[in-house]
Design brief:
CATH class of the largest domain: Alpha Beta
Oligomer: single chain
Radius of gyration: 22 Å
Number of domains: 2
CATH superfamily of the largest domain: NAD(P)-binding Rossmann-like Domain
Largest sheet: 7 strands, parallel
Length: about 450
């Protein structure tokens, strides 16, 4: 048995702030409110519906996550956020068209009371959309201070004990790390000087961490991957994690890829294409924003398949990803995968996957789990990069020098073992040694 870690009680209200109050955020808000009212279930949420095995298999100790770990209760959650549009969460949810109008009308009062704060926005970083509900501060440091004031006001007005921030806004254009990202001193000087290499998402992350609020990055933006923000998160003793919610096509790759590798089936090519019509699709119709998403999606299979370790099977694999904006689809994203595999004696086979998914329906439970687990990490005094939450991300953030693990099954083991460690339970390695050690 390990020593149980000291974890502060999840008493009081937990406020969840989302930069971006579009389809993903409002589907998340609505789902939690509906579940709390008994008119829906939080399906897909590990924190709400998952179980975890403790001890030996012979002990048959399989318990609900919420009964094992001191997590914030769904009834204690309070929602807020920022958006470039003035629409309330109810109006935004209606526009997104993800959830049925009858369901939204059942929770209209609660959603209508969630109104967006004015957003930090820079059209250079998201070219295909624009809005009027934006801050007009002179410098990026002024914008950060305005966000910190928003955070404090929200916490006070809603009587929140703790806060978490989860990025649910658009994908920004592709950005490389530059000199101003290398230390917090350089970064803060660049904020004061309005440096063009500081994206809005970085300003939100900075404001959150300076306010002692954990930050989870749900888009493939650079945001918290830069040394300055990592340094600040350690200095302020605040957890960070990212990046890019693992939902549709990439979720399937992290399920199928490990299966092919486990059976040592070769892959000659993997062609992936998507069509979607929501705001995310409109943003990704810009080549610079698409590049950010493409890098995130392409990195998955290399990590899973390890072509340098298995050159005969994967070294020459051709991997292509396409995203196409098609307005009639709305939030009902459709992905197609054509996978050319080969097996015994090199004989070729094909697998075709057509996944007709609802992007925000898949993302909503991810937002919930990340918010609740990031709050747990903060109460357990875990700061900096939270690699154990890789399970939820397309491009998991890791400590410098480490390669991310993309195999969803290995990610789940890491997540569960972290929870066991926190609660002083024996870690499980699935070697089966407990069987051989039975009396």
């Amino acid at each position: 048995m390990n020593k149980k870690q000291n974890i502060r009680s999840p008493k009081g209200k937990l406020g969840i702030l989302t930069p971006g109050m579009g389809a993903v955020a409002t589907t998340f808000f609505a789902g939690v409110i509906a579940a709390n009212k008994g008119i829906g279930k939080p399906i897909g949420s590990f924190t709400q519906m998952g179980k975890i095995r403790l001890g030996k298999r012979t002990e048959k100790r399989n318990v609900n996550i919420g009964d094992f770990v001191p997590l914030a209760n769904m009834n204690s959650l309070v929602f807020g956020g920022w958006d470039i549009f003035h629409d309330s969460a109810y109006e935004s949810a209606l526009n997104a068209g993800v959830l049925e109008k009858d369901l939204l009308n059942d929770i209209k009062e609660e959603l209508s009371n969630i109104k967006p704060m004015s957003a930090v926005f820079n059209k250079k970083y998201v070219k295909n959309i624009d809005g009027e509900n934006v801050k007009k501060e002179k410098t990026k440091m002024d914008e950060a201070k305005a966000l910190m004031a928003d955070i404090e006001t929200f916490k006070s007005q809603n009587n929140c004990d703790r806060l978490v921030m989860v990025w649910c806004a658009s994908t920004e254009v592709y950005t490389n790390i530059s000199d101003i990202h290398l230390s917090i001193d350089k970064f803060e000087k660049a904020l004061e000087e309005n440096h063009p290499d500081i994206a809005p998402s970085m300003i939100y992350a900075y404001a959150a961490i300076k306010s002692g609020v954990p930050f989870a990055n749900g888009a493939p933006n650079l945001t918290v991957d830069i040394p300055a923000i990592i340094e600040l998160s350690k200095e302020m003793k605040v957890p960070i994690s990212g990046k890019d919610f693992k939902t549709g096509q990439t979720l399937m790759k992290t399920i199928l890829g490990p299966g092919f590798k486990t059976r040592l089936l070769g892959i000659e090519g993997w062609f992936s294409t998507n069509i979607l019509g929501n705001r995310d699709g409109e943003v990704l119709d810009d080549p610079d924003s698409f590049k950010t998403k493409e890098v995130s999606k392409l990195s998955v299979l290399d990590s899973v398949l390890e072509p340098n370790e298995y050159p005969e099977l994967y070294k020459d694999m051709y991997h292509k990803v396409r995203i196409n904006y098609y307005p009639p689809k709305g939030d009902d994203k459709e992905s197609w995968d054509n996978i050319d595999i080969f097996g015994w004696l090199g004989y070729k086979m094909q697998i075709k996957v057509n996944f007709l998914c609802k992007d925000s329906i898949l993302a909503a439970p991810v937002v919930l789990d990340l918010a609740i687990f990031m709050d747990l990490a903060h109460r357990a005094e875990m700061n900096g990069i939270q690699e154990w939450l890789s399970f939820y991300y397309k491009s998991p953030q890791t400590k410098p020098g480490l390669e991310p693990i993309h195999d969803i099954f290995l990610q789940k083991i890491k997540l569960e073992n972290t929870l066991r460690y926190l609660m002083g339970e024996t870690l499980i390695n699935y070697l089966g040694l407990d069987y051989y050690q039975e009396d």
